[in-house]
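Let us walk through a complete example step by step. Step one is to write down the protein sequence. Step two is to encode the small molecule, copper (II) ion, as a SMILES string so that its atoms and bonds are unambiguous. Step three, shown after the inputs, is the structure prediction itself.
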Amino acid sequence: MNEERKGRLELYFVAAILVVLLGSAAANYAMIVANPNSVPSDTQPIPAGSYVVRVIATQWTWSFEYPNNTTSVGTFTVPVNTSITLVATSVAGAQGSAVIHDLLIPQMDVQIYAVPGQNNTVTFEPTHTGSYYFECVEYCGEFHYEMRGYMEVVS
Ligand SMILES: [Cu+2]
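Step three: the predicted structure of the complex.
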């Protein structure tokens, strides 16, 4: 195969890849624009009467704000048999910058991203009192492993 033919073949190959990628991007974009509500989102509406706990993630602490304006750090407490809504965000802390965190409470089947500039919500209802382990499951820097604690469900 001469050099000129090799060069033309390579050009066709690159052009074919571009056509496939751009076609796929256009199809995806058209699908997202046509179905805005089918795009996965962490944000659910807050049900009326739900007990709202504001979750603020920093590098590397979880802070919680309750409806009565009190706060806690590292652990949080919620009432049993009550609709609980977590509203999560991430801000720059004393030590670091605003990065993405992800709060997972495995026994509650609850997971919520804490994203800078967003207020993601998740609603659930604990039906048993007790301590429920939670942790950050999005690698968020050097002391990521310290972002764990317990949700206390009380009567
Ligand atoms: Cu984190």
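Step four is interpretation. Helices lie at 3-34.
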